[in-house]
Specification:
24% helix, alpha+beta, single chain, five-stranded antiparallel beta sheet
């Protein structure tokens, strides 16, 4: 999965695998998480959000099953 750098104080990179609907989020702390069954449209909205961290906390965190990658 290709990760894209994002301009955020909390998120460093994000990526999306449209074959599995998995969103990968790399945080500025170095932690990396995969979130499952995420709609690709939500990923696109995350990329366009003025505040990526705020969008993540409002629409993704605690709403999807996840796994810690690193």
């Amino acid at each position: 999965m290709e990760l894209r750098n994002v301009n955020s104080s909390n998120l460093a990179q994000v990526g999306f695998d449209n074959t599995t609907n998995t969103l990968r989020v790399a945080f500025t702390t170095g932690a990396v998480y995969d979130f499952f069954n995420v709609d690709e449209q939500l990923y696109r909205h995350l990329l366009q959000a003025p505040s990526k961290g705020r969008f993540f906390h409002r629409y993704i965190k605690d709403r999807f099953n996840y796994e810690i990658v690193e």
